[in-house]
């Protein structure tokens, strides 16, 4: 059996049905995009007393939120220490972002338990082993600053990491206890249900076509309806299209591929990632692996920009899996799918004031499951006027276009062979 499609769609029970917007309505705030960020922001804005309309082009979780690997990662890219974050955001905002990220794993699992979201949540930590001895040293050197930033990280030596992963080629590394894994589409549907029950009017199949000035506020038009509101929050991630060119130009969109194997025998599940803690190593082209709730291995990454990329992805990632998991005798790829991430040059998310009353949060750089949830938790009260702009975690800045942003997404894919060659050399000789 080979399915072309997402494993998460196959195993997640039906979505809450979100009807299309066909009327002219009003609201306090319109949120555009029902991924984790839009859903968490809308939910928390409604909880803070606002009348919220959430508009989604397709159905909740259509974007990266329903297609990701489901790793709950309560840390920024580990190469981003306090100094780099301070240089990018200034000392105050850097301190707030590091604190928010350190608590973001707990934010996800708390929300899941508060709203009783059935999404196969497992909070048994997130693992980052080194791929070489040299990388192990560098990672070990970063431990103190992770701990200083409030991340509940512990160091595992090579033997301890082997027990946790069952992957003999990997070295020692970090375990962040408050991390874990979820089934991402089920989490998106659960957030959507929570938002609807908090009073959010969530419309699916309602792509926003234009946003025009309307007195003191904005008129947000879809193909068949419109919403008038004082405030608009853009949470479209990489799928922004041509709606707001200045927002589109401020990110590097990159395509990521995922595969899932056939269900694997139980003895393997007892030695490979036995705690169901997901693993992502230090390679430039990260090797990431997790179990699905139905006993499949899920992995993925980027693929060079060649024709037939999905077929290539299936072949490349199945081969990588065979190399990394020695006990895996047979790999059949039964599901494969793809999604888009929104990158930034410094790997940090951004909050932007596009125009007075239109704000956007974007650029979660492939680490957005926990981060978007945690950001949404403060954006809700902020939209309700309970928090000043100056107190936000991220500074509210003007959009900063990235040169050649439209084709910039090709960059990581083009450089992939170089990264992989360096990763392989280091894993073997360093
Ligand atoms: C393959 C893959 C694997 C990943 N793995 C992980 C992981 O394991 N852990 C992790 O932390 N992060 C991971 N990420 C990143 C993570 O998924 C994202 O950072 C996060 O889901 C972003 O959420 P979001 O709400 O900002 O955007 P999205 O989920 O992309 O939501 C944006 C939504 O906006 C809608 N939209 C766009 N334009 C319009 C419009 N004009 N009108 C109405 N709606 C519109 C889209 O349809 C979409 O539903 C991964 C990403 C990918 C692609």
Automatic annotation (TrEMBL):
Cellular compartments per GO CC: cytoplasm
Keyword match Amino-acid biosynthesis: no
Keyword Oxidoreductase among record annotations: yes
Keywords, sorted A to Z: Oxidoreductase
Residue ranges occupied by any FAD dependent oxidoreductase domain in the UniProt entry: 28-379
The protein, known as: Glycine/D-amino acid oxidase, deaminating
Signal peptide: none
Gene3D superfamilies: D-Amino Acid Oxidase, subunit A, domain 2, FAD/NAD(P)-binding domain
GO molecular function, one term: oxidoreductase activity
Source domain of life: Bacteria
Cited SUPFAM superfamilies: FAD/NAD(P)-binding domain
Short name of one Pfam family: DAO
